[in-house]
Amino acid sequence: MSNQSSADNPRHHSIIIPADEESSLLRAARALQRGDLVVFPTETVYGLGADAGNEQAIQAIFRLKSRPASNPLIIHCFDTAQAQRIAHFDERANHLARQFWPGPLTMILPVRDHAMVCSSARAGLNTVALRIPNHPTAHQLLRLSSLPIAAPSANPSGKISPTRASDVTLPEDTCLECILDAGPCPNGIESTIIDLSGSTPTILRPGPLTHEQIEAILPLAQYHGKHGRITPKSPGQSLRHYAPSLPMRLNVRQFEADDAALLFDCPTPKQCVAHAHLSRKGDLEQAAANLYTMMRRLDHSPARRIAVSSIPQHGVGLAINDRLQRAAFGSKEES
Ligand code: TXA
Ligand code: MG
């Protein structure tokens, strides 16, 4: 696998440190406590973390990502007890927490304690997005810092989320203390977001935890992206997102010579300038784990566009297609 994105961003090499050393974790936890930022791995993607209650630290996240102030952040908690101090949990929320936390599920809930998560982290809303990550590094960082950690994906706004430390491309800034490197993120795409602030539970963003898994224990509102085009549901979420520099074509059957082919469960085309297999055996979880790294790699190829074969629209396939549609949105080559 190529390492081109880190070559584009050599200044970050000096602050990538191994996550499995106690000294690294202590350094990162102290940085969070004094209001600095830390990039850390989760089971989904790498996050750019800060103390959720520190208004200045949160402002630094928005600045470093060039993120619109209207787009609220996800707050990472150590355990359900901490999450329950931040937000009001009803029976549905408690049930989902018991079933799926720690794990790639973010719940939108009414705020209880307005100080633990400052207003700009919530984009001024009276609801808050909470999750407990299932990753040893994130878990240790939450334990050592004793803070709820606000963390969006560690990419400039609108670009592809990093699933490895070397893929983190953010502008240099003295407040970014370190990037904790724990290798590739196992899930590879962002958490499933469910809105529980209204009467009907609604999926705002499909993710590694599937509709089928959630629906087995809780009836869901019809997901807008399920049978057709995506619609932005979360505040600040835009249709174009996760975007590479090259235009994208989706659901491609006939690949052309100047295509970079991104393939799922199909043979390598003969004439393409570059190609990558999301999963040769048609495994959607494996495809999700590979998606962003392979999109990045193909984006650096001499191709004219990234051409993607079709991905089944069930299970994690919904989340993969959601990301691909956003990445392709506005591409002249979109099909
Ligand atoms: O897997 C993940 O969720 C990763 C890792 C780092 O945990 N984080 C992540 O954060 O994807 P970010 O900032 O890239 O996406 C956060 C999403 C945005 O679409 C935002 O609109 C939504 O969460 N969100 C946050 N608070 C919300 C709220 N109160 N109501 C509705 N949507 C909200
Ligand atoms: Mg993001």
Walkthrough of the structure:
The chain has nine helices and 14 strands. β9 and β10 (202-205) form a beta hairpin. Strands 1-8-2-3-7-4-6-5-9-10 form a ten-stranded mixed beta sheet, with helices on both faces. It has helices at residues 4-7, 22-33, 55-65, 80-86, 91-100, 136-145, 211-215, 284-299, 317-328, and strands at residues 16-18, 37-40, 47-51, 74-76, 105-110, 127-131, 149-150, 176-181, 192-195, 202-205, 248-249, 259-264, 274-279, 305-308. The chain is globular, with a radius of gyration of 19 Å. It is an alpha/beta fold and 335 residues long. Helices cover 26% and strands 18% of the residues. The longest helix is centred in the last third of the chain and has 16 residues, at 284-299. α2 (22-33) crosses α6 (136-145). Residues 152-153, 161 line the site of magnesium ion. Threonylcarbamoyladenylate is lined by residues 42, 44-45, 47, 71-74, 106, 108, 122, 125, 127-129, 151-153, 190-191, 193, 204-205, 234-237.
